[in-house]
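JOB MANIFEST
job_type = single_chain_structure
chain_count = 1
residues = 133
[input]
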Amino acid sequence: MKNILVTGGAGFIGSNFINHILKERDDYFIINLDKLTYAGNLENLVESENHKHYRFVKGDICNAELVNYLFEKYKIKHVINFAAESHVDRSILGSAIFYQTNVIGTNVLLETARRNEVEKFLQVSTDEVYGSL
C-alpha cells in the first residue's frame, strides 16, 4: 500500500484526481489535507468520502506541526500538492495569503518531505500560476 498525501484535494483538480485514483487503484491510500477555502468543496468528494483507502483532514499546509504529524502517522512516501491560491483577481486584493500558501506552505511540505525521505513529490498548479501554453 502506498500512502499518498494529497493537498488541496477538495478543489476541482484535486478532487477529480482523488476520485479517479480511488476508482482505478487498490494499492493507494489517500490522505487529503485541505483547508476548505473558497475553492474547496467536500461535495466534490461524495463518491470517495467513505472509501476504505481515503481519509480527509481539514487543515492548512502552512501548519508544520500538522503536516509533520500526518507524515509520521501515515508514513507518507508520496506527495501531490494541489493546494494553492491561484486566482489573479484575488491576488490583487490581497497578496499576503498567496505568499503564505504558495511559498510558505509549499516550503513546509518540501522540508517535511525531505526530512521523511519522501520518494516522490509532485507540484501541481494551473495556468494562472504557470502561465498559458
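[summary]
The chain has a mean pLDDT of 90.
The first helix runs from residue 12 to 24.
exit_status = 0
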